[in-house]
Amino acid sequence: MAGRLDGRAALVTGAGSGIGLATARRLAADGSRVLTTDRSGEVDILADVTAPGINAKLVAETEARFGRLDIVVACAGITGMQMLDGASDDYFDEMMAVNVTAVFRLMRDALPLLKRSPHGRIILIGSVMSSFGEAGMTAYSASKHAVLGMTKSVAAEVGAYGITVNCIQPGAIETPMTAPAFATMPEFRQKWVDKAALGRLGQPEDIADVAAFLVSDEARFMSGHGVFVDGGATQRQ
Q1: What CA–CA distances, in Å, run from 109 to 42, 54, 55, 99, 104?
Q2: N or C: fewer beta carbons within 10 Å in the chain?
Q3: Alpha helix locations (H) across the chain?
Q4: Which of 15-29, 51-65, 85-99, 173-187 has the lowest mean pLDDT?
């Protein structure tokens, strides 16, 4: 049976674990060829997305392997908690470098190839933190507000080429990145379980399934939006 992404080529950053890994696997299951990258893990290319020129190289490598690029999913990201009165410049700068600047560069460098695709898709990973605040999350929240803003603006720029741009806004997801915080602060974990109307934390596959829809033809008229995938958490403030 044919997959809905047969013949397409995708680049997924942050694919060594968590949401990125689940998304890469789901796109491949739907028929897409996928180039995966991360700083660690079993990926095609080990790379730090903040390194100068690296995103252009990843795009070029995708074209070299597959002859095209149709889908970009920017899953590489970091999180953290620091209260404002103790937060360092380095902490804030790293958050923005990974979550914002690297995403900007990836979209910019992928655009020439995406313009040539009849199915150009960009998926960014935002957060429910772009809709409300949380103590200790100033830097992270700022970065995810920026991701949502870029989603809207880039969608307006590239729509003429048939490219769609959307942002998935996850709630609390159990991943290797969030596991340490949940383990050391069980009350924080329970807070998010209680916050979700569905009464559980999300899994990486919950996000990957939405990403697979957004890059498919079924979502061809959907662009410039942040899509909450949070188990109903934002309904229970």
Answers
A1: 24, 10, 7, 16, 9
A2: N
A3: 18-29, 54-66, 89-96, 102-116, 138-158, 179-184, 186-195, 204-214
A4: 173-187
Residues 1-35 pLDDT 10s: 469 999 999 999 999 999 999 999 999 999 999 99
Rounded CA gap, 119 and 88, in Å?
42
**Tokens 């109307």 identify what position?**
197
With left for phi above 0 and alpha for psi between -120 and 50, is residue 72 left, alpha or beta?
beta
CB 9 within 8 A of CB 62: yes
Question: What is residue 237's predicted lDDT score, i.e. its pLDDT?
Answer: 55
13 to 29, 58, 123, 213: CA distances (angstroms) = 17, 9, 11, 18
Q: Any idea which architecture 9-175+203-228 has in CATH? A: 3-Layer(aba) Sandwich (3.40)
Over residues 209-218, the pLDDT tens digits come to: 999 999 999 9
Active site residue ranges: 140
How does pLDDT run across 35-52, given as a tens digit for each residue?
999 999 999 999 999 999
